Amino acid sequence: MIDFIKVEQSVTQLKNQLSTGEIDQRAFEKRLADLIDYAADGYYWMFGYKTGNWYRHDGQQWVPDNPGRLRELTPSKNTSAANPGSGLAALWSSVNWGWFISGLIILGFIAAIIFNSV
């Protein structure tokens, strides 16, 4: 999913690289195309480097739009960098331990049956 804030930062960085000659126009355009991404709302989004506005593809054309709430739903990597391990902690806190342990027990039984039948 798209990280709207990161895309805006990347476009700004690419514009700077183009203006300083670090990259040429062709590389600039390719990297901009790589930043077009699919969002949780089911649409493709891109950030206009000339206008500084967001555009949503409606299935036929790019229309100016504001991702609004979508921007808030996708946390920037900078926020998770301030709290390392928060992603892993969130993953483990969402585990249903009853099903997890039940699954391990079932796998143990299957492994024992296979091991004893060989």
Overall description:
Helix content is 56%, strand content 12%. It has 118 residues and is an alpha+beta fold. It has a domain at 1-77. The chain has a four-stranded antiparallel beta sheet. A hairpin with a 4-residue loop joins strand 3 (54-57) and strand 4.
Descriptive keywords:
4 strands, 118 residues, 6 helices, alpha+beta, four-stranded antiparallel β-sheet
Task: Find the count of extended strands (DSSP E, 2+ residues).
Answer: 4
Q: Given the C-alpha coordinates, what overall shape results?
A: elongated
- Percent of residues in helices: 55-70%
Q: What structural class do the secondary elements suggest?
A: alpha+beta
Reading side by side through the largest sheet, how are the strands ordered? 1-2-3-4
Total helical elements:
6
Unreliable segments of 5+ consecutive residues? 77-86
Q: Terminal Cα separation, in Å?
A: 46 Å
Rounded to the nearest angstrom, the radius of gyration is: 22 Å
Q: How much of the residues is beta strand, in percent?
A: 5-15%
Average pLDDT works out at 82
Following the backbone from N to C, one meets helices and strands in this order, namely HHEEEEHHHH
Largest sheet descriptor: 4 strands, antiparallel
Gist?
Helices cover 56% and strands 12% of the residues. It is α+β, with helices and mostly antiparallel strands and 118 residues long.
